[in-house]
Amino acid sequence: MALGVLMVQLGALMARAVPDARRTEAFVREHYAFAWRILRRAGLSPEDADDAAQRVFLIATERLADIRPGSERAFLFRTAAHVASKAHRSRRRRPDAPSIEVDEAVDAAPSLEDLLDQRRARDILDGILAELPLDLSAVFVLFDIEGLKKNEVAEALAIPPGTVASRLKRAREEIEIRVARLRARARTKGGMP
Length: 193
Prior knowledge:
Layout: H1 3-17, H2 21-41, H3 46-62, H4 72-93, H5 112-131, H6 134-145, H7 150-157, H8 161-189
């Protein structure tokens, strides 16, 4: 389910319960992509991330008055992490069903080779991040990928800013080590440069 469907559902909810519909709509439009990316980085499929994003924003719109200005992404990160965790637990309880993954529409601008290279790089990064301890990967994703400031990361993870800096340094070092190992393995097999 995409942003448009979520907006329709939230519109109905807002008409009944949310006094400031414009603020809510602006909040969802501004932060939907961020929350969706966090859910994908948490290991959810695109379809599951769509559903989970809806849950995140239903929770957020109910609590919108409690979210301090400037802390929106921190709140959404914590909520998305909680929703993703629940989705993983729910999935483990369900029997495996065959899934068909449909690739998103391809922009005509990049070549197929470029898209494939980007996909491989993204898959490698996702694999490396999945191997890292959660405390390191969360800091790296929020700071280096999502572009949050260190104080926003500290707030999102409920840790001191100094801890953010040290975890970010450790995460980058671990990633560099793992990339070097992958490159060394690929060279011996004649793959990655």
